[in-house]
Design brief:
The protein has 308 residues and is of the alpha+beta class. It folds into 2 domains: 206 residues, OB fold (Dihydrolipoamide Acetyltransferase, E2P), CATH 2.40.50; 93 residues, no CATH class. Helices cover 22% and strands 25% of the residues. A 5-stranded mixed β-barrel has the order 1-2-3-8-7. The longest helix is centred in the middle third of the chain and has 16 residues. The two termini are 25 Å apart.
Length: 308
């Protein structure tokens, strides 16, 4: 089985942006192509026609998440692995060299999230293409990403099967263990199975994030630094984001006693669990807390979130 997706050709650009392992800036050869993207939500491009691409079905460790005005400000997950995913994405689409404002090896002195800004790349832009089925609630185009010869002409609908999926950067990042699979209900079950197989192989080989992953085993969170230090616990980014926002509510009290209640009442996460009937409302259904140890009860591969 396959899944129809719109092919758009264009260029990727990283300079002046803060790409992580699952987000990158893209400008179509014809900016009018943004209006052809299917789905109920429009892509929201910038002044020069570029828009953020949110790579379909993957979630990379956060390099900069949150509000500067929040108690903990903008935070990140362990940067060695987070940067490994971001670097792999940039190299996969064709950038041969790049530097961040915070790169100490290159003399960078910028700290915090501004240190994530790309200051230079070689080349300046790279040609590539995306396969998309729509935009997310933030106006980002959700897509499979590729470089080189595209599988069809610009503006054509492509029936994406497992073989075509394996040629995308999304699949490559999963295969290399640098990102977590994170699925939404509009993405084909057959294509999810292909990514699951690649993720399982990477996990069994302890590649990338899987060597350090504590999502199922449990992470002890005594303070936010338990998740943000270079040697901090590596967990599913979605769980990290929920924990960061929860801890910001009472920055002087890192107790996780109310975390499951927070998940039940503060978020609209709706999802299916493989092998179980019905839709679950709230991540408290798949999160356990024992003192200061938090863990998920189901692997990322087994969960499919309902698209908002």
């Amino acid at each position: 089985m396959s899944m129809p997706m719109l092919l758009i050709r264009g260029t990727f650009r990283a300079k002046g942006t803060k790409p992580d392992g699952d987000t990158l800036s893209f400008t179509p050869d014809d900016v009018a192509d943004w209006k052809r993207v299917p789905g109920p939500r429009p892509v929201v491009p910038g002044a020069f026609g570029s828009a953020s691409i949110r790579l379909e079905s993957i979630d990379a460790l956060e390099t900069h998440y949150g509000d500067r005005n929040s108690p903990s400000g903008v935070q990140h997950q362990p940067l060695p692995l987070a940067h490994a995913a971001a670097d792999a994405l940039l190299k996969a689409v064709g950038f041969t060299d790049f530097h961040r404002a915070g790169d100490t090896a290159g003399g960078g002195t910028v700290t915090g999230d501004e240190g994530e800004k790309i200051t230079s790349t070689i080349p300046e832009t790279v040609q590539g293409w995306i396969l998309t089925r729509g935009a997310d609630v933030f106006g980002r185009c959700v897509a499979l990403v590729g470089k080189g010869l595209p599988p069809a002409f610009n503006g054509y609908e492509v029936d994406v099967d497992a073989e075509a999926l394996e040629k995308t950067v999304n699949h490559q990042l999963i295969k290399d263990g640098l990102v977590y699979p994170t699925y939404y209900s509009g993405f084909s079950e057959v294509l999810r199975a292909s990514l699951n197989a690649a993720a399982a192989a990477a996990r069994d080989a302890e590649k990338g994030v899987w060597k350090e992953d504590r999502t199922l085993e449990g992470a002890e969170v005594t303070r936010l630094a338990s998740l943000t230090a270079d040697d901090g616990a590596v967990i599913l980014p979605k769980l990290f984001r929920r924990l960061k926002d929860y801890l910001d509510l009472e920055p002087r009290n890192p107790s996780l006693a109310c975390f499951r209640a927070y998940l039940a009442g503060a978020w609209e996460d709706r999802f299916y669990i493989q092998g179980r009937p019905g839709v679950f409302n709230g991540m408290h259904h798949v999160v356990e807390v024992d003192g200061q140890v938090v863990r998920m009860t189901h692997a990322p591969m087994d969960i499919v979130f309902v698209e908002r």
